[in-house]
Design brief:
single chain; about 350 residues; alpha/beta; Dihydrodipicolinate Reductase, domain 2; eleven-stranded mixed beta sheet; globular
């Protein structure tokens, strides 16, 4: 491939414009084209990037023989068809989250990319943020011990979506971080939600992920909260971490606190939990825009043929969880067991004493 490669962006709304800005400022790529249905938006962007060609027809955009890679930042429902067309045309493809609306579509994209030897990357931006990288470093060093549970809250007033519920809108950020920190996918998913403003579209939800071995994560998402909250607590056996993304200088604080259970006791009167209260500290973090790091990572993976940190597989895992959450929500929070890439079972073991999960396929 010629170096640096030519790249185009499809979808030039709020997030697409952030992609344009970052790719334009990277020396390892040539931003060659941008595509959007909104002519007025393209006219405005042309004043900012006069050397970048504009298209309002995706078919024409994709026929550009010089185009090596495409970044997609369009509404979720269009991700699969656009990404599939890009991969079939031989273009390395970056897709914003969620990668598709169905796990089976994600798998198809993975298969096409593998067959054609192309880079497929999902836009899980938080994995490239300095705070999350630092948290993962602390965990990998064993400082907090094995993770017991993670609790996350992502709350604000709006923005209300018309095509997806609050879980599909807000929870992907937290899910991607949790999967990364836990190092794998959950076994069971529960989700409950309610529609208060738009019929049929949940605006508040509680999502639970059971990873087995007593490891657990909970995610609260809301478009109906008076305060903007972006907070995650990671509880280990030795220490705990609080990550507040809204803080400017203290995004991460590590607490040397824990609860220990006595190894043995002879009678109930001898049983006492031990509470350890130590100091806390704020780790130093090198500031860097996560999206810039993510864009550069995509280009590096193209150049070296390496697997992205947020590859198609990570995109698939996230959509599997979202699908399971929707199924659980439909059945009033019933536990859904993740059996495979597209197979789910509704676990009715809590209903009427049954111990056998019921397949819904």
């Amino acid at each position: 491939m010629k170096n640096p490669p030519f790249l185009g962006v499809v979808g030039c709304g709020y997030w697409g414009q952030n992609l344009l800005r970052n790719f334009k400022n990277l020396s390892s790529v040539r931003l060659s084209s941008m595509c959007d249905l909104n002519e007025a938006r393209l006219d405005h962007l042309k004043t900012l990037y006069p050397d970048v060609r504009t298209f309002n027809d995706f078919g024409q955009f994709l026929t550009d023989s010089e185009l090596d890679a495409v970044a997609i930042a369009t509404p979720v429902q269009s991700h699969f068809e656009l990404a599939k067309a890009c991969l079939l045309a031989g273009k390395h493809t970056f897709v914003e989250k969620p990668m598709a609306t169905k796990a089976s579509d994600c798998q198809e994209l993975i298969d096409i990319a593998s067959e054609k030897g192309l880079t497929l990357m999902a836009g899980h931006t938080y994995l490239y943020s300095a705070p999350v990288r630092k948290i993962n470093e602390i965990i990998q060093q064993g400082e907090i011990g094995p993770i017991r549970h993670i609790n996350s809250r992502r709350l604000n007033l709006g923005l209300f979506q018309k095509d997806i519920n609050v879980t599909w809108d807000l929870a992907p950020h937290d899910i991607s971080i949790i999967l990364h920190l836990m190092g794998g996918s959950p076994e069971i998913v529960n989700c409950q939600g309610n529609c208060h403003v738009t019929p049929g579209i949940e605006d508040v939800s509680n999502l639970s992920l059971n990873f087995g071995d007593s490891r657990f994560a909970a995610i609260q998402s809301s478009w109906l909260d008076p305060r903007k909250v972006r907070e995650m607590t990671i509880v280990g056996t030795r220490k705990m971490i609080v990550y507040d993304d809204l803080q400017v200088h203290e995004k991460i604080r590590v607490y040397d606190v824990r609860v220990d259970r006595p190894p043995r006791y002879d009678k109930s009167d001898d049983f006492h939990y031990t509470y350890h209260f130590g100091t806390s500290y704020i780790p130093h973090i090198h500031p860097q825009e996560p999206l810039r790091a993510e864009c550069q990572h995509f280009l590096d993976c193209i150049e070296h043929g390496t697997k992205p940190l947020s590859s198609g597989l990570e995109g698939l895992q996230l959509v599997r969880i979202l699908e399971a959450a929707s199924l659980s929500m439909k059945h009033r929070g019933a536990p859904v067991r993740l059996e495979g890439a597209t197979d789910y079972a509704l676990d009715r073991s809590l209903d009427r004493g049954s111990s056998r999960p019921v397949s819904l396929n």
